Amino acid sequence: MSSSSTELKLALAKRVLSRVGSIATTIMLVQTIVHNYIPRELYAYLFFGLKNMFTNFSKQLTMVINEFDGLVKNKIYEAATIYLANKLSPHINRLKISKTAKEKYFNITMERNEEVIDVYNGQTFKWIWLCRQTESKNFYNPRDMDSAEKSIIRSFELTFHKKNKDLVLNSYLTYIMEEATLQKHKNKTIKIHTVGYEKKFCLHNMWKSVNFYHPATFDTIVMDSNQKDMILKDLEKFMTRKEYYWEVGKAWKRGYLLFGPPGTGKSSLIAAIASYLNFDIYDLELTKVTRNSDLRKLLVATTNKSILVIEDIDCTINLEANLVNRAINFHSNDFYQSESMITLSGLLNFIDGLWSSCGGERIIIFTTNHIEKLDPALLRPGRMDVHIHMTYCTPCGFKLLATNYLGIKDHKFFEEIEELIDILNVTPAEVAEQLLKEHEVEDSLKGLINFLHKKMKEKEEANGVS
């Protein structure tokens, strides 16, 4: 009896395996026919038609959140990336983790194709992060002017019950963006960005960044106290006037011009402003940008809550002829030559035209050693709203440097040093360099006195010659 039962089971298993094999063979044959004989367009039409048919019977709704919305980054995508980093399940299979030398926290994010379940107001929401590889030379995304340069398309898929559509649109996504803003501010490390010129035609990759650690603060920079207070009050007023800028019809941005001799602390002031506001810095070297259209794309690719820095603007404006000559050396086409130059008009449109309103809460800082060389059109309010004169070192500035570098507030040599500084044109950078040369306080001050006497002798000799 048992032998007969075993034989029946074996026969049944053979029949099942035979039918499975036949089905598998049929599927492979159908796949071969589809791929070899059915046009790709017809195949895609049939596939999506069947998919939509089954979707109509589903109670689930899926929202796709792409990384880019036209020319700019999708704020919902950015917020979801930050928000979901704190929602990773213990059962997740893969995740990405990183940490730079001076960051306080680990940076943990989802890995591609991983799933995260979130619960909000008692409802369940499923997130999946997708990355799709494309062939750069054949790919074209009509929403993105630089899609031909992309090789990876990133997006989130948010799936939930259809009855929760209004909850998602009216509450859940707003909650995610608010939580992401708080988390980003809490863990933010200031970054400095520079243009990635090898990929400057690829919008999402135009800027390259590194973490920015600069010790300068408003407590340590050498500057007249009244001028320092004026800058702080202006920054505070700017930060709290979002609605006011909107009401009067102005873009929410502020322009600063820092002018003065080299070594007077322009770069330190920029670092202090970035630290005070917790804003990223975008360092734009205009000498490397060859077209007005590139300026617009670079502006669009910056983020809100950022500082755009254009140094030595007086040198940049005079480069128009050099840029044309450089274009002529490489291309003879007249149209290319006309496009391969930065004009004053292009720069003005960049900082104060229609494109400057793409985004908000931005500060643009220009620096120059020679304000007299700047075109008056650049200096007017709306472009360079606040002009800050960075002066030579003063006696008060020297005392602050002595406190910062030597840890002292008074010394028997102070009176002589202050008298010399008061009549000489010596920069804070020169004074700081002398204070750094020796380990002992008295040796440092003596070295500074010798340096100042040498400067005085040079000044007297120059006056004698003249």
TrEMBL record:
Residues 252-394 form the AAA+ ATPase domain. Signal peptide: none annotated. The keyword Ribonucleoprotein does not apply. Keywords: ATP-binding, Hydrolase, Magnesium, Nucleotide-binding. InterPro entries: AAA+_ATPase, AAA_N_dom, At3g28540-like_C, ATPase_AAA_core, ATPase_AAA_CS, Mitochondrial_chaperone_BCS1, P-loop_NTPase. The keyword Iron-sulfur does not apply. One of its GO terms (biological process) is response to stress. This is AAA+ ATPase domain-containing protein.
